[in-house]
Amino acid sequence: MKQFFGTEMPKLGFGLMRLPRLEDGKTIDVKQCEEMTDKFLAAGLKYFDTAYVYEGSEEAAKKFLVDRHPRESYYLTSKLNAGSWAAKNEEEAKHELEVSLERTGAGYFDFYLLHALSKNNVDNYEKYGIWDFVKEAKAAGKIRHYGFSFHDTPELLDEILTKHPDAEFVQLQINYGDWNNPAVRSRECYEVCVKHNKPVVVMEPVKGGTLANMPTKITDIFKEADPDASVASWAVRFAASLENVMVVLSGMSNVAQMEDNISYMKDFKPLDEKEQAVVKKVQDVLAGIEQIPCTSCHYCTGGCPMQIQIPDIFEAFNRKLVYGQDDEAAKRYVKATEGHGKASDCIHCLQCENACPQHIEITSWLERAAKEFEG
User: Fold this and answer.
1) pTM score, two decimals?
2) pLDDT higher than threshold 70 for residue 74
3) Which side of the chain, N or C, has fewer Cβ within a 10 Å radius?
4) Residues 6+ positions from 71 with CB-CB distance below 8 Å
5) Which three-class secondary structure state does DSSP give residue 62?
């Protein structure tokens, strides 16, 4: 296993974007998070990942992690988002660090990221002087290491790393579903990081849960190869098997998911040649299935003037596209639009497409969803 930053990093990280919620669907279930955190740390794992824009996540992390465990027993990561939907100006963007430190009570962040860089916002990070800002924050002891997360082309990634060789690591969306996807270009982005000798933090290894809930024809392939392994385990281990990967984030939402991930990541073993062949077979099957590449990050919904729950509508549509479950898809669409905007309510303001890290043509998909579910 490669060493990064002078220490051997445990391969599994706890992503705090999709924490469990109580019945109201809004309040984070801190009690369950405490149990998950204790199991995670007891397994020798250390890396926790939150962000300024993850609603309630930083405050909850203070309760279930920072207030309950010695500061040196874990790594805590957060992020500064200078996108126009998160910060209106330089002052607001830079203030995010202080807010995050206050919310978490952590004293400092072990890793700190410029959040979700893409062609839509990269100029803001330059214009606001954020690169110099994080260097100063490191010198002041507020952060230990800085890097950035990225959602765009390998060409832009190469440009950023050439211009900012001091960036210490890069966070990329890597999963076997996107590895050769011409829209995401996951493999090519990873190769740019290897070229620049930058360790990689992996996000979305299970693609927002999509790769844990697959059509029968795919789950059958995995179960034939290893009846005891969860479908999600193949996705996490695929990402963790890449040589330059420092840690793989899993956005765990309950104790069962935590226990499953720990079972195969506590003593991580890379995929062997036969297992890689199984994943390749699944990739070939996936390539022939049309689906919306939404990871349910909800970055698109906060500024929607019509209050359309876009990820929920897309999840419903994928039930039809991927699984052929027409009735279930219709039921989920009804639920997704109860008290919220319908797909046909879209006014094409495009704020959602500007915020989407997957670069999905959201308005076009909403038009298709309207025709499919609204007649």
Assistant:
1) 0.86
2) yes
3) C
4) 106, 107
5) helix
The single-letter code of the amino acid at 352 is: C
Residue 264 to residues 149, 205, 274, 309, Cα–Cα distance (Å): 26, 15, 17, 34
Q: Distance (Å, rounded) from C-alpha 170 to C-alpha 155? A: 15
Q: Among 66, 78, 79, 75, which residue's Cα sits nearest to residue 117?
A: 79
Q: Are 192 and 200 in contact (CB under 8 A)?
A: no
Give yes or no for a contact between 251 and 15, defined as CB atoms under 8 angstroms apart.
yes
Burial 249-284 (b: 16+ CB within 10 A, else e): bbbbbbeebbebbbebbeeeeebeeebeebbeebbe
pLDDT of residue 31: 98
pLDDT band for position 163 (50/70/90)? very high
Q: How many CB atoms lie within 10 A of CB 105?
A: 15
Q: 45 near 14, Cβ under 8 Å?
A: yes
H/E stretch holding 162 reads: helix 154-163
Question: DSSP letter string over 201-232?
Answer: EEE-TTTTTGGGS--HHHHHHHHHH-TTS-HH
Per the structure block, which two tokens stand in for 19?
A: 């924490």
Give residues with Cβ within 8 angstroms of 293, minimum separation 6: 178, 181, 183, 184, 207, 358, 360
| pLDDT, tens digit, 9 for 90 and up, residues 201-256 | 999 999 888 899 888 999 999 999 999 999 999 999 999 999 999 999 999 999 99
Distance in angstroms (rounded) separating the CA atoms of residues 135 and 143:
9
Percent composition of the chain: helix, strand, coil (DSSP 3-state, to 5): 45, 15, 40
Query: Is-contact 306 341, C-beta < 8 A?
Result: yes
Relative orientation angle of helices 310-323 and 326-337, to the nearest 10 degrees? 180
Measured distance CA(334)–CA(92) in Å, rounded: 38
